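Before the break, one more example. Copy the sequence into your notebook; we will annotate it together after we see the structure.
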Amino acid sequence: MSFFAISVTLFIAMVLEVIDLSKTFPLEIGFLRPEWVLMTLIYWMIALPQRVGVMMSWGVGILMDVLLGSGIGHHSLSFLLISYISLKFYQRLRMFSVVQQAIVVFGFLFLHVMISFSVEYFFYSVTWTMWNLMPLLTSALIWPLVFLLLRALRRSLQLA
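Here is what the structure looks like once it is written out:
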């Protein structure tokens, strides 16, 4: 049951990640899109580290590469590193308040953006803009909501 619930939440996060906002919202709204998949992975690694591990984050990263059309391994590299760190310190992260966790999630997402930008710069010669940091802010701001929703789901399904 827990694998199914985790898979469904990750699927919903992937849908939110790839949904086209340009038809209904201005183009700039796309830059504010939170990192739904990574936040969902981080939550499940903190809540159920015995169920969600490095291999699952690698697989989700590969799926994100396929969904977004990026090079294979682009997302899985940063997801792998972030999952290793969050699994290493999951007991400490559990003890933090939601606001402190939001700060840690901001740091994880900053690491993700830096790894992603480095890969894109190396292979595609993209340029850096401050818009690259906008998902960090929106993700950190909505982390408490994501945390509370996923915790309520976990408790209602009695996942352990």
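The mean pLDDT is 91. The chain has one domain: 2-156. Try to locate both features in your own notes.
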